[in-house]
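Side project, low priority. Logging it here so it doesn't get lost.
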Amino acid sequence: MSLLKKLKKLDTLIQAKEMLYEVQMEKCKNLKSPDTGGRVQVSIDPHKLEGEWVRLAELKREIDELKAIPNMAYELFLGLSENALQAIMIHRHLNQLTWEEIADRMGISVRWAKELGKQAEEELAYMLGDCTPKTNWLKQSYEYEKNVTGDD
């Protein structure tokens, strides 16, 4: 599940992009700014100058998108069917707690916390349309329930 993997590496990825952004910002500061009319310190092709500023803007957009992922994940986790599943996913993937810490906070066993985590990931896989043979049973049960009850 790529979203959950991305959440685990998110802080490191944001820090790396921010470092690239700082390097690119310095690079752009040493060139003529298209906005300020500053003096050209280095002879440079106008297309290259524009490209450097475009790259800086792209890095900023990428950083902003990465920083928005936890909020999107939080909203997605709130879509899970049970409060316990929501709590498990939030604690595990946003708060980055261990199974022991989650179990302690929720007043359950570590084994049960892991089982709830598995259920939450299966339901999340279904929500994202990422069904595998392991999670296909969940999709089938939702479709069956929808057909029987007429709920959409």
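Brief comment: Residues 100 and 110 are 6 Å apart (CA to CA).
Revisit when time allows.
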